[in-house]
Every structure is written in C-alpha cells, then in structure tokens.
Amino acid sequence: MSATTIGQVLATDLRPATPHLFHFWTGADSGAGIGTIVRVEAEGRVVFGVVTEAFAWSDLARPLDAVIAADGDPSRAGEAPTDRPTIRLWTAAVLRQLPEEPVQPVPFGPVTLASDADVRLALRMEGYAEGDDPRGLALGLYAAGGTGSPVWLDADFLLGPEAAHLNITGVSGLATKTSAVTFMLSSIFQQLPPSRGSVAAICFNVKGPDLCFLDQPAPLGEGDLALWRRLGLTPTPFTDMTLYAPYKPDGVNLNTLRSHPALTDRVEPLVWGLREILDYAEVVLNRDDVDAKAGALLDFLGERVVGRHFEAPELRDAPFAVESFADLDEFFRAIFDYLETRARGAEVWRTHHVATIRKVRNRLGNVATRSHGLVTDDGVASDLPWGAFRDRSVTVVDVAGVDPLAQDLVFARVISRLREHLERRDLGVDQMIVFVDELNKYAATDGPETYVKRMLLDLSERGRYLGLVLFSAQQFRSQVLRRVVGNAGTTVYGRMDSDELALPGYATLPAAVKARLAALPKGELLVRHPHFTQPIFVRFPRPAMLSGREGIERFPATPDLPFEAAVVQRLRRLDLAIAADAIREAIADRPEGEVRRALGAVARERPDDVLSFFRACLRRVIAAEPIAPPRGIAPLSQRDDDPFAPY
Amino acid sequence: MSERWLEGLRRRIRLAGGHPATAVPEASTARGEEPRIRLAEVVEPPLRAIRCAPPTPWEAPVAFLDGVQRTAIVGYAGTEPLLAAEVAAGVRLRVDRQPRSATHLRRRLLLGRAAALARVGALPPTIEAMALPDDGPAHPVADIDAARRAVDDVRGHLERAVAATFRTTHPDAWLLVDGSLTVSPDWARDPRMVGVVKSHTTLPFEAESLEVYLTLPIGHRSSAFRPPTRTVAPVHAFGMRLHDWTGHDLLHGLVRIECAAGPVDTAALDLLAGRLLAERAPLAADPRADRMLYGVHDVERWLRAVR
N or C: which end of chain B has fewer CB within 10 A? Predict the structure, then answer.
C-alpha cells in the first residue's frame, strides 16, 4: 500500500532545495511536526529528511487589516464567513539520499510520512540492526511520525571500538537522565550479542538514593510495557546488582540510603586502607602540595615502607611493618624523635627535609579524618571485586553521603583500577561501562586542574580501546570540559534549560528544535549517534527498576543503629542462625576499634562459621583471677617485756 | 501627500460643508468606459440612506465568480501588433468557510490582424489565434486597443460559461459575481446571483440625489433603483458602503449591488445588504480591498496561481 502524500516539496529563490535541506508544504492536519521523518520520492531518487523548522502564515497583509475586518473587536475575529488560506511550510534536514551518489538537491516530489522501513533506511540502521551481524541496541521509539518505529544504536559505536561513550544533558528532575541511562544499560545487557563479549557496569551514585534500587522491580503501566515489547526487551530490573558504600564515621553503619533491612543482602562495605590511598595520594592532596619533594617522599613510602618490612636502625632496632595509618603515624613519630633527639636537631632524614615529612604526614592524616568510614586505620580493606566482575552485573558505588575529597578518591581509584585490569584483560569482563553523573562537578570547564578531571579526560579519549566506556550526565553541557563531552560518540539531550540552549555550543540546532528541547516531556530525548546525520527525537519507556524516590518511599532508610545492634545486624546478615545474645556477649566490653577490625575481617573472609571466626578475630580475653590480699608476715607475738616490739 | 498646504485646503473644504478626500480609490473607474451619469429610476422611493441589516453570514452555500486576464505585446508583423493574452474565469464554492474550486476555464490567445497571424504560422495547440478586425488601416495603437477589447469579450464569455457550468451542479447556491449582472440575461434573471460592482464610471443620480448616493454612511445602502441602460437585462441595484469613507474619498468603500429585478422587498434587500456586509471580513490583501469581497479576491488569486 502506498503511503499517503502529506505534502509537496517546494523551492523558491529565497528557499531553494539543497542536497542537505529542503522545504515542503502540507495541510494543517498533515501529522508532520518538529522531528518527524519524511520521505520524498521523485526523479529516481528517494530522500529522507527530518523536520527541523516549521512556519505558518496566512494572506493577511498587515495586522491592521485584521483589526479593520473585525471592526476592532477581537471577539469577532472568528466570525468572518471565509477563513483565510494558511500555509504550513516545513524545513527538513536531509538524513539520507538513495542513491547516495551523485549528491544532488532534493527533487520536487510528493512528501510522505516515513514508515518503519523508511526509518530504518533513513537512520542507516539496516547496516547494523539486521543482517548477518546484528548489533543494534534499542534506544527508544521514534514517535514523531505516529509510527513508533524502534531506534537502534550501533553497539560498535556505543561501546567501542569504532566510537564509544554516551553523554546526556538536561535539566535536573525533568530530563530523565538517570532513567535514560538505566534503560540503556538494560538494553545493552539484554541485546548486546555474545560476539561482542561480556559487559558490566559500575555506576557512581552521587545524589541521594538515585541508583540504590536498580534491582527492585518498578510497577509499569500498559503503555510502558508496550514500549518495552515494541523494542524487543523484557522489563526486568538488574538481577545481578551489588551496592558498595563506605561506612559512616561510626564504622559499622554503612553510608547509604539503601539501609532497609529487606535490602541489605546486596550491600557491601567499601573500605580502603593505607596501601589503597597511598597509590592515589595525588588525588587527596592539593595539587600544589605535591611538589617534587613531597612526591619523592610519597614514592619512597609507597615503594620502600608501606606493606614491607622496613629497616631503619637509626630510628629503632626493630623493622617497621607499616600497614595502616596508625603504623604510618608511628613511623613518622619515630623519624621526628630521631631528628629532634639523636640527630640533635638535624633537618634532613634520608634526603627528605623535615618540613616535607611534616607536610606529607599532615595531609595523609587529614585523609583518614575527612574520609572516615572509607579509609580505615587498621589496614583491612573491603574492595570492589577486582578481577571477578560478572557479565551483565551492575555495581553501584554509593558515594552520595561522603566528603567530596573521598568522592574524588573513589572515582580516581576505581577508574584507574578498571583501566589497569582492562589493560591486563583480567577484570572479569571484556567491557566495563562507567556511569558518572554530575559531570559539571567532576570535569568542569573552569576550576582547577584535578586528578579526577584528567582521569575522565583520559577515559573519554582512550577508554574505547580498552573497553572502558563512559556514560556521563550533566545539567549543563556547556560547563563540562569540551574534550570529555566531545569524545562521546552518542550524545543525548533531555529537557534543556533555555538559557543553556542560547549558548553558542548549541548553534547547530535549529530554533524549533531548541524550542522543543526546552519543553520536552519526560521520557523523550534528542539523540545524536554517528550513524544519524541529524539528531532524532525518541521516546523511551520507563525503566523497569525503582527510581531513587520510589525506592526510598517503598524501602525507607533505617535510622543508624547503635554500635552493638549494628554489629549484630551485620553478622546475622551473614548467618541468620547466630543468636543476637551470643554476639552481644562476644563484644561486651570490647573496644569499638577492635570489634570493627573483627567485623571487617569477617566481611572479607566470609567464613562458614561466622561467629567462631568473629570471636577468633577478637583479642583473646584473659579471665580475671581474684587475687587474694598478700598475706604478709605474721605479726610477732606481743611481748610486753620487750620495749622494742612493734605491737 | 501629507503636505501642510494640502491639509489646509482639506480643512477649508470641510468648513465649507464639503467632503475632504485623500485619494481616488484604485479601479473605481471601469476599463474603456467614459464617465457619465445615466439617471436611474428609484424603485424604493424616496432615495435615502437605509441602514443595512446587521452583518449576517449566508446560511446557504455561497460561491464567488471572477475572471482574470493578462495581455502582453509579443511583437509586430511589419507594423501590425501581435498581442498574447491569457484569460481565465472560475468559480470557488465556500464549504465550511473554506473556498474550494468548483470550475474554471482558461484560454491562451495570440491576437492580431489576420495577415499578421498568418505570418506567424502554426501555433502550439494550447494557443489560439484570434484575428482582429482589419477593416481600417493598420494603426498599432488602435489595434492594441482593439485587441484588449477582444480580450475583455473573451473574459466575459468565459465568465458566463463557468457560471452556467456551476449552475448545472449547484442550482441553489448563491453566486456572487465580481461585476455587473447585466452582461447576461441569465444572470439578471437568476434570483441567487448578486453582482458586486466596484467601479463608478457610470453614476445613477445627479445633484442632491447623487450626494445622498455618494455619501452613504458605513453600513448603509441606498434605496433600490433600476439602472436605465440595462434594458436588455434589467436588474435592481443599490449603492452600499462597506467601509468608512471619511478621510478617504467619496468612492471609498462604495459598491453597487445588483440583483434580479422583481417586486421590491425592502426587508429582503436589507438582509442581502447585511449578508454582504458580513463578507467584508476578512479583508483582502488588495489595493481595492475597500470594495472587494474576500471571496472575489480569493477567486482572482486562485486563477492567477493555477496559471
């Protein structure tokens, strides 16, 4: 059945048709709109275009004519017995011409709305979404023409190696950035063909409960379910999800809003020790601090001292075994003692000036203070499953509640480790997607040059060769480092701020597209992808998992438990058979630091007999023995005749 | 012309009881017609200004008829001019406030003396040769005038032809014609045809009666009269002011309405005038918009667009 003609291409000397742009007119009820894909077929050519601008006018020559015709009464303006003729004139940008060569102006032919098949051709999707090597990943439905045609992204251009990375921009709360990314992850997990290898995702949760409930199913309406079905996807949440969160300063309650008792089974602590911090000291120290001298000392500590038996007879006879911040502080104290006493006020120890040593000591000490909960004093670490990431798994790193310094540290270390493992191909998966929200904050155009910024830049520029893919989001694209967003092969816009759209960076978008972006409803996006020669509006379904707001309403965070109760809960989570009283008895009168260490050891080792292992990790208690008062020397018998007798 | 001395003169005229004016409306004189007064018989005495009924759109279907023509000198055979002409006429029927083309005819002509046409030879099938009278000596200016009169005649023929065609399919529709009904006995008899005449080269009254006629206030009509020269196709007519003429010209907004002659029914004439008043809106983008109904403008534009 041939498609209904809705319009006709026209060209005038002021509005000529070109190989990349054409104009057509339609009736008022044509079904065309901004973003609609249309097809022109004439003169042996087929041209697909997307509507980018719309105009309408009547034959009214002067505004005053309307006033005169209505006798100056606006309420009578609609009473004229004849309607003025009006024109709907549309401008369309060419998506594709068939044949592709020679490149010619768009022919003057009839215009029809694009069918499903037309949309596939117009967006060049037939080259990757079907055929011998299908690798299309559903992004959403093209809905502007009323057809609801699926729009696919090319996996090779979203995850690499041809291009990679996805960046999404939009105003907070309305642009559905997080929803879009989680839906896209669902699509990747379900549709990435086995030939493209294994894939997992690490999502940094930087705001409230945003990403805390990705494993919890959301109730979907029939409309959303139909969208999922149309895209060939199953509406399920992520079944393999683990959330990592640092402790709160108390060291037992996790610093996450996913603390409802029903959901704690997939929550793991994220705790790092001195070794983990020292490798990324540059992140936590001000850049100005890390001069050559401080850097040399840090290198010295990292290579010679921490985690090794370091012998320094001038400091003390026994070798140092620095494993924790406490050990390191003891080491520094030994140096200062040596310089002040035995070296008689010397200012240099092993080529390191005392001022440099004091500065490094202060800064590292601050890390433990400001990142309390993430950084442990005792050297016991609970880390991400490096080398053991599972295919189609989602790891959420919840840093929403921690100090910005600690956030930077987490970003830097996680991404650096990812890169190291991917270079060695021993991460556990072939490709890792890293989702970072609030890129305005971490890769801002202005502001100081930070380690995190350099790391994100490196990731965006070289990650695709490793299989490290950055999915990033921000409110204001103009305020993000251009090279970071510019390297995203796929760019998505949700509802945008009008002021932002007025900036020169958006000059390539037609005015009507900008106007639509400024009022885009939730669930609709404008997408740029390497195969699409023009941005396309798509609608995506609501994700199948609870949003942060829904999750926190359904699974309210529990208040912080007292130390004892928190320990009981943590251990019973590993073994429900353990009696709470037995745990209380085991930790009674124990110092909290000791209990935390034991708890950390249990969490790390996951022993079969949790309680016994926990008890074994506690210091041995030597039972108190009643000591009888010394019997002393028996008094001498009183002798009255002895004047020197004591009694 | 807004020069102060002109304004001074206009003020003097106003003070003297006259009617200041600024410009004679375009096309208020008919092509090839000498200005004259032909006294008409008032059939709705006395001659006076009568308030029209309130603007009321037609309930029945309404169509508009108009014709267009275009001539261009295309050469000379010796000294004899050759003119090309394109003439068209059409009817647009208004349905749900939207004009829709009902019928139209178009002719392309090459006009000249027979000898001149013969020298051109065979014409393409879409162009007709039309010979001009060659009973006098060839005079380029006279021949061009003759050609234009011939084109006027062709246009009249086309207009009558499309009206006849339209009537066969729409016998009950009102048909508003741009011009006089007296050119056709069929039109003059048709109770549902109305002629809207923009030109005032021929005026029906003189002296005080003429002042009454030419100073009709907006929304008023004159008493009905029977134009004297239309004995072949007698009609009734009345003057009518569509737009306020104050500050413009006596002829601004003034049209002559023609309809079939018959017993004078003042109420029916008032109602017809009210329906025509409703047709003032929307205002046509045309220099003659003060006297041109939008529907007529629409036909004219359509005929030019589908050329």
Answer: N
